Amino acid sequence: MTSSKMLPPGSTIGILGGGQLGRMLATAAAELGFRCHVYCPDGESPAFDVVAARTTAAYENQSALAAFAGSVDVVTYEFENVPADTAAFLGEQVDVLPNPHALAVSQDRLSEKELMQSLGIPVAPFAQVDDVASLEAALETLGRPSILKTRRFGYDGKGQVAIRAGEDASTAWEAIAGRPAVLEGFVTFAREVSALVVRGRNGETAVYDIVENVHRNHILATSTVPAQLSAATSDAAREIAARVASALDYVGLLAVEMFVVEENGAERLIVNEIAPRVHNSGHWTQDGCIVSQFENHIRAIAGWPLGSTERHSNAVMTNLIGAEADDWAALAAEPGARLHLYGKAESRPGRKMGHVNRISPKVG
Ligand code: AMP
């Protein structure tokens, strides 16, 4: 069920998940006069510091979920591995947005790719892999190098392994613990970009400027706008994102990650994956756009008109990973830089501790 009413300020937004995305959603919601209630199994969650109400309970705890649903006016989530049953259970009591079907599709790399194919959107060549025999058959077709990825619970390079010339199928299969997977042909891309689309309850859609992403050790390092892309390719990327959002009857912010392949001087887009939530590659919008991805997600699920996605500045977002956040004092003093820290007590290698948006006058 999704009602078409506009939630008035003072309403309570329920957020499943308590990481930095939940924290930034909650502060954006507070700017519009909403209260937030975060539900997260981890009592040390960064979002807990900035919200009106918190529940620490497992996603399978039905009495805690029922109480949570009864205390909020709409439920959303800040990460995609919320169990589908949890979303469905809550959906019987309260609006859950984006809808649980969109969540289920993006939790499974195979259904994600099948959706893209059904919409005529290019993806890397792939094959379903359920055991060593099907992996061997897939390697015959797709060749080496290729990348074996678990269908579920993969993020920041976890749950995936490259299979190079001379490397064998069973070692790769063991490396992903024999979980249902897809094998993907290796894409020689010129760059990686993402399209951030927001879709309202009434189907209104807006897309942010396409952003160019650089990963280091499988973790996003920087996001830069404008991306180095032709106007036609940018338009095509926006159109793909809007098409996916409509097909899923999506409400909220959706990220679509793509590879840009250059061949004979022409650019081609290949969708890598989608994320049914606000996204790290959209953090630049906090300081580079009139209305950020976080506020627009809140507006969308609250049934409000979308805010302007117009970019007013050039921006480079740099993630602060592990000890990089120890430079906070120097970053705070840097002209043109806006520092965002997540309030995480413990710094660990590879852990996202904050980010900095470096803003300059709009060019391009
Ligand atoms: P993913 O977990 O699917 O987002 O993949 C993480 C990163 O691995 C991507 O951002 C790419 O840099 C790289 N990657 C993933 N799939 C492929 C592919 N099929 N070909 C080449 N590089 C890939």
TrEMBL record:
Record-level Gene Ontology MF annotations: 5-(carboxyamino)imidazole ribonucleotide synthase activity
Top-tier EC class: ligase
- The chain positions of domain ATP-grasp read 113-302
Q: Which Pfam families match?
A: ATP-grasp, PurK_C, RS_preATP-grasp-like
Q: Describe which pathway this protein belongs to, using the record's wording.
A: Purine metabolism; IMP biosynthesis via de novo pathway; 5-amino-1-(5-phospho-D-ribosyl)imidazole-4-carboxylate from 5-amino-1-(5-phospho-D-ribosyl)imidazole (N5-CAIR route): step 1/2
The record's section on InterPro entries has:
ATP-grasp, ATP-grasp_carboxylate-amine, ATP_grasp_subdomain_1, PreATP-grasp_dom_sf, PurK, PurK_C, PurT/PurK_preATP-grasp, Rudment_hybrid_motif
Q: What is its EC number?
A: 6.3.4.18
Which keywords appear in this protein's UniProt record, sorted alphabetically?
A: ATP-binding, Ligase, Nucleotide-binding, Purine biosynthesis
Report residues binding ATP: 109, 149, 154-160, 184-187, 192, 215, 272-273
Q: How does it assemble?
A: Homodimer.
NCBIfam families recorded: PRK06019.1-1, PRK06019.1-2, PRK06019.1-5, purK
Q: Please report which protein family the annotation says this sequence is part of.
A: Belongs to the PurK/PurT family.
Q: What is this protein called?
A: N5-carboxyaminoimidazole ribonucleotide synthase
Gene name as annotated = purK
